[in-house]
Amino acid sequence: MTDWKFDVPTTGSKHLPPDPRYVEALSSQGYGFEVAVADLVDNSIDAGAKDVVIHFLRDGDRLVSLLVVDDGHGMDEEALDVAMTVGGRRDYASGALGMFGTGLKSASLSHADAVTVVSTTKRTRTVGRRWRMEHARADFQCDIVDPAYAQSLIDRYDNNRPIQWQGTVVRWDGVKDFPKHGGSGQTDRYLQRTINKLGLHLGLYLHRFLARNDFNITIAVEDVRTRTVYLDFGVEPLDPFGYPVSGSADYPRRFTTTVPGAAIDLSLEAHVWTPKSNLDEYRAVGTVIDRQGFYFYRNDRLVQAGGWNNFRQPEQHLSLARVAVDLPSVPNDVFRLTVKKSGVDTSPEFIEGLEKATDMRGRPFTQYLADADAVYREARKRSGTVRKPVIGPGRGLAPEVRATIEEELPLLPLEEPIAMVWQKLDTDLFFELDRENRLVVLNQHYRRAILGGRDGSLNDAPLLKSLMYLMLHRVFEKEYSGSREKDNLQMWQSILVAAARSELDRVTDHDS
Questions:
Q1: In the chain, what is the straight-line distance between the N-terminal and C-terminal CA atoms, in Å?
Q2: Residue 265 · residue 375 · CB < 8 Å
Q3: Which 3 state secondary structure label does DSSP give 282?
Q4: How many CA atoms lie within 13 A of 130 on its CB side?
Q5: Which among 119, 153, 274, 400 is most buried, taking Cβ atoms within 10 Å?
Q6: pTM of this structure
């Protein structure tokens, strides 16, 4: 029997360069659209930009390109080659937002067939490089942009729009998220929805930068032929701790601890939000379950908005609890930032440190959780009514609707949520209930009429689905339906079928 070897013995090494398909894997990391654009803005901030413009370009009804333009210090040819190299090595400043050398490429190629970067400095000529997914996938061949075109693209944004003497333009073509056909107002609806989500995301994750007097992000839409500007507005900071009045007079309060084994001194700024707040600063972070917990910052950039990182389970009574944590600047094994900068993995030592955290008067961090819980419960008592717990809403309902339901109604713990789906049913049925799988099945036959002829999506018809949830959730909370409830279900069925048929007739008449 051989002895266990704690180190694996080796006999040498061999160079194994990545297969070109590595780029395809790099671009398949699940970047959300807003997360990908925010990654590009991070690069602008690292470049010292004061103004960043996110430009949607359209040709009539068709969206053609997305550009991120900044007035940062720009790049010369050598620096641009490094920036366009997958995992390109460069020295990041101590306060930089970049880390891995993959963000520009992976974020861009996750959402576009081609990414072009054009840059100029005060002392060097304009240069450009272009990654096309087909070339990157084949043999890592990066195109050199024609210098005349590179200069013309810079000139398009000169005279303080935002480039004056230096800056960079990142251009996405073949954006996968853009509507394939822009007619019937589809492009306008896409832009309204996407720009609203993008503005909220950037406003939240970059709120400390946007609160400064010398940094701005503008989102604009322009027609490439007529140069008509359809939208042009600045992104506002969305401070997740920006309540007008604290939910508790004892907060905010600072707790400190030393993380065992890592020699890291950690500061935790604990907040209690105002109960029943309708501010975007409170509601923009998903559901009541999502928005509670830790808000981690790295170099003033929010990298995680909510979540308890295995410290405890989220629950409705802690929906007012938010804790700001600035991550240590020194490298450590306690906090590991995800490549997309959309979350933080923490070690068990972090949990151990939390259990020992105290404020300046020696009160434990666990007291904060009890206080936040008490504020929530007291606010419920003052409302004068006690609402019965319900089975929560699930997929098929818009996230903002689910968030409001979970805010207004206490949820039954450990219960599978109620989902809404469209399926084919007999035309004399508007809905069907699947108790075992917690499904409300809506009749696909009436979907187009309900949506007014628009294309459907997972979370479509939010008003109808909200009313169906409010009408039907009690049915799922009972083991069986009595005669009165069965009669009500039949009555609702008849009335809704009649209404849906009327809507269908109206749509048909409009089309003809």
A1: 85
A2: no
A3: helix
A4: 16
A5: 119
A6: 0.77
> Over 350-389, what HEC string results?
HHHHHHCCECCCCCEHHHHHHHHHHHHHHHHHHCCCCCCC
How much of the chain, in percent, has pLDDT values that exceed 90? 57
Round to whole Å and give the CA distance between 328 and 334. Answer: 10
Q: Are the C-beta atoms of residues 46 and 96 closer than 8 Å to each other?
A: yes
Q: How far is it, in rounded angstroms, from Cα 160 to Cα 311?
A: 48
Pseudo-torsion of CA 364, 370, 372, 374, nearest 10°?
-150
Using CA atoms, how far apart are residues 187 and 179, in angstroms rounded to an integer? Answer: 6
Non-local (6+) Cβ contacts of 317 within 8 A are 372, 373, 376, 377
**Beta strand segments in 105-246, E:** 112-120, 127-132, 143-144, 167-175, 216-223, 229-234
Provide the H-helix boundaries in 19-111. Answer: 22-26, 33-46, 77-84, 103-109
Listed residue (292, 293, 296) closest to 327, CA to CA: 296
* C-alpha span between 181 and 454 (Å, rounded): 13
Tell me the pLDDT tens digit for each residue of 367-421: 999 999 999 988 877 766 677 899 999 999 988 888 788 878 888 888 999 999 9
| C-beta atoms surrounding 138 within 10 Å | 12
DSSP 91-132: PPPTT-S--SS-HHHHHHHTTEEEEEEEEE-SSS--EEEEEE
Contact 409, 390 (CB under 8 A): yes
Q: Give the DSSP per-residue string, 381-434.
A: HHTT--PPPBPPB-TTS-HHHHHHHHHHSPBPTT-PPBEEEEE---TT-SEEEE
Region for residue 394 given its phi and psi (left: phi exceeds 0; alpha: psi -120 to 50; beta: otherwise): beta
Rounded Cα distance between 454 and 372, Å, is 44
171 bridge partner residues? 67, 116
- Is 370:270 a contact under the CB 8 Å cutoff? no
3-state secondary structure of 336: strand
pLDDT of res. 22: 63
Two structure tokens written together for 94: 């101590």
Locate 361 and state its tokens.
């008067």
